[in-house]
Amino acid sequence: MDMSSMEAKGSISRIRKCIRHLLTFGDQIDGESWEFVAEDLRLRSTFLFCDFNRFIAASPEDQKQPLTELANKLFHCMEEMDEAVKCRSVELARACYNDATSVLQDILISLIS
Prior knowledge:
This protein is mainly α. The chain has helices at residues 3-23, 34-58, 61-87, 90-112. Helix content is 85%, strand content 0%. The model has no long low-confidence stretch (mean pLDDT 89).
């Protein structure tokens, strides 16, 4: 197994772990844990960004565009959720979280196939 293949597998593993964590994140959007939610969201976004870059770079050429589009959708949703958390709007944060969970599930499906 070459180094780039091992690196891609590590990235996939971290992406899955981050996604699983984010899929359970909704209960923390309660209006009482804003600082924790903001810190956790930014940390997970950073890990996901780095790992998606590695994973997409190691992917076959025909898969790069669809993976890039999924990643862009996810980061757009996460940016919106970050803004909602900064505004301390529970309703908006939950709506953004619901949008993000749909994209997160799509990413998990694409990682399986």
